Automatic annotation (TrEMBL), chain A:
It is found in: Mitochondrion inner membrane. This is MICOS complex subunit MIC10. Keywords: Membrane, Mitochondrion, Mitochondrion inner membrane, Transmembrane, Transmembrane helix. The keyword NADP does not apply.
UniProtKB/TrEMBL annotation, chain B:
This is MICOS complex subunit MIC60. It comes from Lepidopterella palustris CBS 459.81. Residues 242-252 have a biased composition (Basic and acidic residues). It is found in: Mitochondrion inner membrane. Component of the MICOS complex, a large protein complex of the mitochondrial inner membrane that plays crucial roles in the maintenance of crista junctions, inner membrane architecture, and formation of contact sites to the outer membrane. Plays a role in keeping cristae membranes connected to the inner boundary membrane. Also promotes protein import via the mitochondrial intermembrane space assembly (MIA) pathway. GO terms for biological process: cristae formation. Pfam families: Mitofilin. Residues 87-106 have a biased composition (Low complexity). The keyword Transmembrane applies. It comes from the Eukaryota. Component of the mitochondrial contact site and cristae organizing system (MICOS) complex. Residues 57-76 have a biased composition (Polar residues).
Length: 97, 634
């Protein structure tokens, strides 16, 4: 991963909360990874709980949960990448032909 | 509940006795408040209340045993028809002393004790009441109706008093404040009654024949008729003669003296009696004489009458003498009064004359005084008038003199002014020439001053622009240059071009400063690595394509120099070259040509470059303007 801390130069411009434009992609990658970790961990833990409670300690519910979590995180990340490139249309009226 | 049950239970022992009844009363009874029954007071009536033994036959079908034993009041009456019951007024039962609630004990009706005595008393009472009512009504009606008033006051004892009292009251009410003496006749009040004895005045007697010839009612036989000619007509001539006899016209109704009777007493004749009193006396006497003459025996009274006549004559003579003496005394008195009056009049005239003379003298004096005073007044007035007129005249003269002097002075001043003016004009023309030349000189110096000022201004402008430029170039890190820019703007206060150039600069540029070219190049290198990572991304790239781009970009060959082509790598290479050459404008143009993620990533860097370019352009404009100003001065 490229370091995001090096992107903040000593310029006073960096004081703003808005990230530099060249750090946009890196930030998105960070968010994707963290969310993937969290969601897959949650799915896994739910799967383990279900396997213990319902499925006689089978292994597959844990994998299914992990898959659910990872898939959810992937989808979220995908959508964030897709919508970031195009200029945001928030607050604009869309005129349809 | 309890009360109701008690009420229901109580009539079990109804016929015990009256003493018990009193004791059996309960608080729940509806007792009458003011009737107190002492125990034993009703014991006398107990015999009547003992109920009779129940009849063997029911009341519905009375058997023949009714005939003898049952008293009359116990015989059941035939019930009235419903119509009668409805029509009859509801008779409230007389209040009986309270007994028990049992049906068997009914108190006896109250007896009327000793009816005879009370009847008489009632009669008396009614009589009194009716008589008073009648009396009052009579009084009232007598006040209303006059006819009844007469009847009432005449025949009812004390009626007149009562009516009179009320009339008096009404009269006083109608006319208050008048005399309070009773208006009624004294006979009503019973005072000053005049009693006339029974044998008084004329008495009746049988008319005699020959007396009163006018009527022959006393005689027997045929009476005098009013229609026919009466036989005894001998009386009229005799009647005429004594009528002519009376001596005066004032007493024409002298009694008719019968001429037939020889010893008639002569009527009194006193010619000298002119007084009415005397005449009256004579008349009375004559009347008496006529009466006596008419009577049967005039001779009896003749002496008395003759004496009376002589006395009367004497009295009349006395009266005449008295009159004469009185007349004389009056005349004397009148004469004395005349003389007294004459004296008084003379005295009055004399006094009046003296008074008039005195007044005349007084008036004359006053007149003299007044005339003198008036003359003096007029004289004073004339003097004052003369004086005033003289004063006015003198004043007018003085005024005229003053006016003349003023006119003279005016003419003198005007002539002096004219002289002065004519002399002044000669000198003033020279002075105006001098002032004109001075003004021209001032204009010239002012023009040169403006030139110098404009030069100074442009110089200042240039210095300020140079100061801004030097601060920008000498800065290692971006510094705000608000102070320099403000100085520039102040110097070029009225220069629209400079103002517009300064306004075109982004405010963030001079608030935060602009990056130096070396910083720009440094940042470009960082941006370039990032852009290179996203160089292979297609449109709408997902996570997978991003991962692929990230991985594949490592494998790309780096271009350098002025590479040909529109791909990202070539653009980056060209930009780097241009930056190294110092062509910021070209570099910005190259980077602006990127698409997609590459452009998004390089946006901030482009903004920086643009700001730097804007500042440079604005400063160039200012410098050019300053130069132009300096050229325009001459």
């Amino acid at each position: 991963m490229p370091d995001s801390s090096s992107t903040t130069p000593t310029t006073p411009v960096a004081r703003t909360s808005r990230p530099m434009s060249e750090a946009l992609l890196n930030e998105k990658w960070d968010r994707c990874l963290s969310s993937m970790l969290i969601r897959s961990g949650l799915g896994l833990s739910f799967g383990i709980v279900f396997s213990v409670l319902l499925f006689k300690r089978r292994a597959w519910p844990a994998y299914v949960g992990l898959g659910f979590g990872a898939g959810r995180a992937w989808e979220e990340c995908d959508s964030s990448f897709k919508h970031a490139a195009a200029p945001s249309k928030d607050g604009l009226r869309v005129l349809r032909p | 509940m309890l009360r109701a049950s008690v009420l229901r239970v109580r009539p079990v022992a109804p016929a015990v006795g009256l003493q018990w009844r009193v004791a059996n009363r309960f608080f729940a009874d509806n007792k009458k408040p003011d009737e107190i029954i002492l125990p034993g007071s009703q014991s006398a009536n107990t015999n009547a209340d003992i109920p009779a033994p129940p009849p063997l036959t029911s009341s519905a079908n009375p058997s023949p045993s009714v005939t003898s034993t049952i008293p009359l009041q116990n015989v059941p009456k035939t019930p009235p028809t419903p119509q009668e019951v409805r029509a009859a007024p509801v008779v409230q039962p007389a209040t009986t002393p309270p007994t028990g609630t049992g049906t068997a004990s009914v108190a006896p009706p109250p007896k009327a004790p000793k009816p005879k005595k009370r009847l008489f008393r009632r009669f008396l009472y009614q009589l009194l009441v009716f008589s008073m009512l009648g009396y009052a009504g009579g009084v009232y009606y007598s006040l209303v109706s006059d006819n009844f008033h007469d009847f009432f006051t005449e025949y009812i004892p004390f009626g007149e008093d009562a009516v009179g009292y009320f009339e008096e009251r009404e009269y006083r009410k109608r006319f208050p404040g008048q005399n309070s003496t009773p208006r009624l006749h004294p006979q009503v009040t019973g005072e000053n009654k005049v009693t006339i004895p029974s044998k008084h005045g004329l008495t009746s007697r049988v008319a005699q024949e020959g007396e009163a010839k006018g009527s022959d009612l006393g005689s027997k036989g045929r009476h005098v008729s009013a229609l026919e000619d009466n036989k005894p007509a001998a009386s009229p001539p005799t009647l005429e003669a004594p009528k002519a006899e009376p001596k005066k016209e004032e007493a024409p109704k002298a009694a008719p003296a019968p001429a037939t009777s020889t010893s008639m007493i002569d009527n009194l004749e006193i010619p000298s009696a002119k007084e009415p009193i005397v005449q009256d006396v004579v008349k009375i006497l004559n009347d008496i004489i006529t009466v006596i003459n008419a009577d049967a025996a005039p001779g009896r009274y003749s002496n008395v009458l003759a004496k009376a006549k002589s006395d009367l004559g004497k009295v009349i003579a006395d009266i005449s003498t008295l009159k004469e003496s009185e007349q004389k005394a009056a005349e004397d008195k009148i004469r004395a009064a005349h003389t007294e009056f004459d004296d008084a009049a003379k005295e009055l005239i004399r006094r009046l004359d003296a008074q008039m003379q005195e007044q005349e003298r007084h008036w004359k004096d006053e007149y003299e005084n007044e005339r003198e005073k008036l003359a003096q007044n007029y004289k004073q007035k004339l003097d004052s008038e003369l004086e005033a007129a003289q004063k006015v005249y003198e004043q007018r003269l003085k005024n005229e003199l003053l006016e003349q002097s003023i006119a003279l002075q005016r003419s003198f001043t005007s002539s002096v002014r004219d002289r002065v003016e004519s002399e002044r004009d000669g000198r003033l023309s020279k002075l105006t020439e001098l002032s004109d030349s001075v003004q021209e000189l001032e204009k010239l110096t002012a023009e040169w001053n403006s030139v110098v000022d404009a030069n100074l201004k442009t110089q200042h402008l240039i210095v300020a622009v140079e100061a801004v430029k030097s601060t920008l170039e000498n800065a290692d890190v971006p510094k705000p240059f608000i102070a320099e820019l403000a100085a520039l703007k102040e110097i070029a206060a009225d220069d629209p071009v400079v103002a517009a150039a300064i306004a075109s600069i982004n405010p963030t540029a001079y608030q935060r400063g602009i990056p130096t070219p070396s910083q720009l190049i440094d940042r470009f290198r960082r941006v370039a690595t990032e852009v290179r990572k996203a160089a292979l991304l297609p449109e709408d790239a997902g996570v997978a394509s991003h991962l692929a781009s990230l991985a594949m970009s490592k494998l790309l060959f780096k271009k350098s120099g002025l590479a040909v082509g529109g791909d990202v790598e070539a653009v980056l290479a060209r930009t780097e070259v241009l930056l190294e050459e110092g062509d910021l404008d070209g570099a910005a143009r190259e980077m602006n040509g990127l698409q997609g993620w590459a452009k998004v990533l390089s946006r901030d860097w482009l903004g920086d470059v643009r700001r730097v370019l804007e500042v440079r352009q604005a400063l160039d404009v200012c410098a050019t303007e300053a130069r132009l100003q300096s050229l325009l001065v001459d």
